[in-house]
Structures are given as C-alpha cells and as structure tokens.
Amino acid sequence: FAAAPRPEWRSRLLFVGRIDPRKGIDLAIEALRSLPDAATLTVIGDGAAEQLAELRRLAGEPGLAGRVSFTRSDRDRLQELYADADAVLFPVRWQEPWGLVPLEAMTVGVPVVASGRGGSAEYLRDRSNCLIFDPDAGPGALAAAVRELGSDPALRERLREAGFETSAGLSVEAYDEAIEALLAEVARSPWA
C-alpha cells in the first residue's frame, strides 16, 4: 500500500477483517448511536453466516438503519477503500495474535482507533500513532475516541505521521531480518 491524501473529516468509519464475535464489530456498530447521524460504518469481511446475520439485524435497528454497509473486497481494492475512510476501527475483544489491519491503515495514512489487545499492543501507542479505547467499557468508549479524532485535525495529522513511521518500521523485510537474526543467535547458542 502507498500513502494517500487525507480528505476533510466526513465521519466515514471502516472495519476490515473476519466476521467473528471476537472482532468487536458489534461495538463499532453500536458506537454509531453516540455519533452524529452523518457517521457511517463500512464493514469489509467474510466469516460466520450466523454472525453476519446478527450484525445485519443490529445494523437495521432504529438509529442505525442505513448507516452500516457490509461488503467484501479483493485485496487489490483495499488500498482504495482504506484511503476513502476517515478512520479505521480495530475494536478486537480478544488477544488477537498480530493485527495487520492497523498497519495497513497506517501505511495508507488513515488514523486508527483500536482496543490495542493482543499482538497489536506491540506497536500501537495511544495518542502517539493511534487512539486506544477499552472495549470492556462498551461502545460509548469507542464513540468518544472517534468524536475526539473527528474534532481535532492536529491529532489526526499527528497520528497519520506517526502511523507512517510505525508501518515503515514493521515491514516484511524488517520482520524477515529480525527472524534471521534470532535464528542465527539460536544457532550460535551453546544449547544448539
């Protein structure tokens, strides 16, 4: 992915990932109740049919109807979809092993609002390269973070710049070099 110019804030929120209760998609949908009516959420992903049906039911409730769309996307269109969003939401409830979505968003220059659980805690820094919220505090906590982001252009720009630095430092090449160095260290150890 490559950096994209940032449009003015339009309250377009994006979730990318597997449709799974552990991903916190319901939190993102429910957060819309506490955001201006113009706020929308696009959910891009595939997964359990029952979970998708439950999320669609939730998105059809009063105050939410017409504000949430569900779609799938080929990988080659993702950059364009990230670039069209004002913020990417990563509201995972579980200790997700890594979390690639925030890094993809950062590479494009889109601010991230995340729970910071699991592997993403290795690189997400609240108020430095993202906004962190506590998913156990409910959808209001997510909505508060989105409202803050939407009302503060300087914060969005600071997160964008720090996101570029973070994603550049966590490239596939850097990962491969770190694994190679670790393997070389193990091979030199007296226990090898």
Order of helices and strands: EHEHEHEHEEHHH
CA distance, first residue to last residue: 39 Å
Task: Summarize the biggest pleated sheet.
Answer: 6 strands, parallel
Radius of gyration: 18 Å
**Strand line-up in the sheet with most strands:** 3-2-1-4-5-6
Helix content: 40-55%
Task: Report the β-strand fraction as a percent range.
Answer: 5-15%
Q: Work out the oligomeric state of the chains in this entry.
A: single chain
Low-pLDDT segments, ≥5 res: none
The number of helices is 7
- DSSP E strands, number: 6
Computed structural class:
alpha/beta
Shape: globular
The mean pLDDT is 94
Describe the protein's architecture and organization.
This protein is of the alpha/beta class and about 190 residues long. About 40% of the residues lie in helices and about 10% in strands. It has helices spanning about 25-30, 50-60, 80-85, 100-110, 140-150, 155-170, 170-190; strands at about 10-15, 40-45, 70, 85-90, 110-115, 130. The mean pLDDT is about 95.
Give a summary of the structure in a few sentences.
The chain has 192 residues and is an alpha/beta fold.
SSE layout and pairings?
Blueprint lengths: L11 E5 L8 H7 L8 E5 L4 H11 L8 E4 L6 H7 L2 E4 L9 H9 L3 E3 L16 E2 L6 H13 L1 H17 L2 H17 L4
Parallel strand pairs: 1-2, 1-4, 2-3, 4-5, 5-6
Helix pairs in contact: 1-5, 4-6
Defining key terms:
single chain, 192 residues, alpha/beta, 6-stranded parallel sheet, 7 helices, 6 strands, 42% helix, 12% strand
